[in-house]
Amino acid sequence: MTTTTTSTGVAPPKAARGARRAGTAVPRPGLAWAAPATLFFALFAVLPLVLVAVLSFTDWDGLGAPQFAGLDNWRALLHDHTMLKSLWLSVLITVLGVAVQTPLSILLGVWAAGRQRNRAVLSAVFFVPLLLSATAVSVLWRAMLDPNFGVPAQARWLFGNGNLLGMQSGAIGVLVFVGAWQYTPFHTLIYQGAARAIPQVLYQAAEVDGAGTVRQFFHITLPQLRTTMITSMILMVVGGLTTFDTVLILTQGGPGTDTTISAYYMYQQAFKSFDFGGGAAIALVLVLVATVISLVVVRVSGYDRMRSSSEGL
Description:
disordered N terminus
């Protein structure tokens, strides 16, 4: 008499073995297993969002009791040119961030998944920015880009007057660069894991057919990384639209309002102008925009129609 064991060497329950013999599906865990995660999500995601939604219909300066204001905060947003400009800047910085980080992350992730010499050491060094907080990274780059004592002051031939943060194009470029410098390692790590999961038999078959490294990359690696690419891009979109601390430390929304993105404008309205109702309305607009963009990415990419558990299928 033989005993069926799992990959861990432990025999499956008798009911599960009987279900397999009978050809029926093994019942999935009940809803009770999802209760802890559901409760955590409700307390720390749904409830705060509901409270912010309620606050957006009030007039509150942070002291006393909020006063119901109806749609006043929302009407004010419709006629607020700074708000419209901040939304455009948020989308612009997010798109630029995705355009810069995605190809870099894919190339570095595929490289890190290989077996090159000193790959582990170089990968560890490259992942260091991921260990730093956004505040520390912003302080570091603000010091390095100081027009009087930083790198631009020593390379006037490249940076001109050196005041990169004094003009809109330079400030936006710095924000995109600093974001890529810190978060590209995170997405590289995602692509590294996905690249290692690609079956090697695909590359072996391609070599037999005479396909070179570049052709294998475009015809095997990229298609197999499709779902990972979509997931990474959605994370970039959400992260880009909610960027705050980098703008606060590097540009403070300047010059003027040229880098005042929506998250920073929300902070200004709520904690500088003491208009918490208006700030809550801006926060809800950000949530809506991030949700819509993420759904568009999922829909256009066909991610919602994928049924295979394998990458790219």
